[in-house]
Design brief:
about 200 residues; 7 helices; mainly alpha; single chain; about 85% helix; globular
Length: about 200
C-alpha cells in the first residue's frame, strides 16, 4: 500500500499542474522545471543514505514526471492539432520502447557489476540528456506570446471552472477512479512482480 502512495500523489497533482502550466512559455517553464526535479529525484534515490531520504524522493519523482512527461505530451499534441492521432501513436510506441529498454538497461547495469543505485544513476543520466534535448529544441508554441496574454486575461480561470464542472459529473469521476485503478494494476503490480522474481 505504501508503494502506491507516490503514484497516487503524482496522479492527484497532474491535473493542478496542467492547469497551472497553461500554454506556451509558462508550460515550457513547467516542463523544464519538472525535468530538473525529475533528474534530482533520481539522483536522490541513487544516493539515498536512509529510508527517509527514499521516502522523500519518490513522492517528488511522480509529480515531477507528470510535469516533465505529461506536459511534454500535451505540448506535442498542441503543436500538431491536425495530427494528434499520429502523435499519440508515436508517443505510445516510445513508451513501449521504454518499457522494453528499462529491463535491458537494468540487466546491463547488473551484468557490469552495478546495483540498483547504479541503475538509478544511469536513468538520471538518460533523463538529463532528454532534458538537455528539450532545452535545445525550440518550443513550437513558445513564440505564441498571445497565448500567455490570453491566460492572463482569464482563460486560465475559465479552464479551472470547466475542470471543476467536469469533476462534479459522476461519470467523469467514475472513469477517473477506473483510470487510477488501472494505473495501479499496471505500474505497482509490475513493480511487485519484478521484486517477486
Amino acid at each position: 500500500l505504501l508503494a502506491s502512495v507516490p503514484l497516487l500523489l503524482g496522479g492527484a497533482l497532474e491535473l493542478p499542474l496542467g492547469l497551472l502550466a497553461g500554454q506556451a512559455r509558462r508550460r515550457r517553464r513547467f516542463i523544464l522545471s519538472g525535468g530538473i526535479v525529475f533528474v534530482l529525484s533520481l539522483l536522490a534515490v541513487a544516493a539515498a543514505p536512509s529510508w527517509l531520504v527514499l521516502l522523500a524522493a519518490f513522492p517528488l519523482f511522480f509529480p515531477a514526471s507528470g510535469a516533465f512527461v505529461g506536459l511534454t505530451q500535451a505540448e506535442l499534441l498542441d503543436a500538431q492539432p491536425e495530427r494528434q492521432a499520429q502523435v499519440m501513436a508515436r508517443w505510445d510506441l516510445a513508451g513501449n520502447a521504454g518499457a522494453v529498454a528499462g529491463p535491458l538497461l537494468l540487466a546491463a547495469v547488473l551484468a557490469a557489476g552495478g546495483g540498483w543505485r547504479a541503475a538509478y544513476l544511469a536513468l538520471a543520466a538518460v533523463a538529463a540528456l532528454t532534458w538537455a534535448g528539450t532545452c535545445w529544441r525550440a518550443s513550437p508554441t513558445a513564440s505564441a506570446g498571445d497565448a500567455d496574454a490570453a491566460d492572463a486575461d482569464g482563460e486560465g480561470t475559465a479552464r479551472v471552472r470547466e475542470v471543476l464542472a467536469a469533476l462534479r459529473d459522476g461519470a467523469v469521476l467514475r472513469w477517473l477512479v477506473l483510470l487510477e485503478v488501472a494505473d495501479l494494476l499496471v505500474d505497482v503490480l509490475t513493480g511487485f512482480l519484478a521484486l517477486y522474481l
